[in-house]
Amino acid sequence: xxxxxxxxFSNTSWSLYNFRTDLINELIPLGYNIILVSRKGKEIASLTxxxxxxxxxxxxxxxxxxxxxxxxxxxxxxxxxxxxxxxILTYTIKPNIYGAIACNIxxxxxxxxxxxxxxxxxxxxxxxxxxxxxxRYSFKNIFHVFFxxxxxxxxxxxxxxxxxxxxxxxxxxxxxLNIFKKSSLLKxxxxxFLMASRILKDKGVIEFIEAAKQVKKKYPNVIFKLAGDIDxxxxxxxxxxxxxxxxxxxxxxYLGHISSIKQEIIETNCIVHPSYYNEGxxxxxxESAAIGRILITTDWPGCRDTVVESYNGYxxxxxxxxxxxxxxxKTLKLSKNEITKMCHNSNQYAIRLFDVKVINKLYFQQxxxxxx
Length: 372
Known about the structure:
This protein is an alpha/beta fold. The protein contains 13 helices and 13 strands. It has a seven-stranded parallel β-sheet, with helices on both faces. The chain has a six-stranded parallel β-sheet with strand order 10-9-8-11-12-13, with helices on both faces. Helix 3 crosses helix 4, helix 7 (205-218) runs parallel beside helix 8 and helix 7 packs across helix 11 (321-332).
């Protein structure tokens, strides 16, 4: 019996490797050929070693170029015709939309994952409406859509892009609880806060630095660390020189790019993510919850789903330095027993909601509905 093909299409091989490895490892033993389509990165060797076939498609995350994007669409159509997959699983805006248009043309089943609607609601009127129309046209016959937060799901349903029965709400991309295990707090270390994110204004980087500056005036021994890449192609990026000056004046330690953030989380008491970027369900918060750390994040779609107030962390107002500062000081005033309890609660919350096995099971349910 010939194997059945499934295509996974995302904008980067990094995201496929970091977020979809568990799904791939469960699909291959079930007799599926896995074909990965994305930009090429250093992760390709590991992905092909797992048994996947990789096809490069240098799709850009930012901007729209009609000619280049049309070429990408033609290549996706060609791949669907060549490999005749029983399904294509798509992630992020462009793969979701271009994949859906190609699937409409070829009659292929698509399972899309809305990992956050990004900034498209904030861009200029013309681009905003173009993206909205593309979603509405391309998703009209889509097989199924997974949403990582309720806000995005309601937006798509209320704007008649999809119907209720076409979608399922999930909590993030899922976390492997065998890798991100509960870890005890390090003893006899100064209390520390960590923010790990792309260095963008709408991720709340400046708010984090300014709040840290205020907190250190009252608690000078507290450590604040910031990790993440600077994306110079993004208009909301903070330049390296400006970032260094901000960190120098506030006492925040800038770690730069960290290839594996797990150890930094283990060495930290509290993870801070003051984002007001329209993301799905932030990975850093899911990983930190699983390891068992107190969380501080914004009362914002996706972010708020990781925290129950005073149970495993605190919510602050978006774009509000004072609100973030108060949440940090609340955390610093906790007793040792209260800190231990909240860390335990974070881990239990992650086990209930963020286990990748639960999310992969939902994928298998949808794939099993497709007539082979």
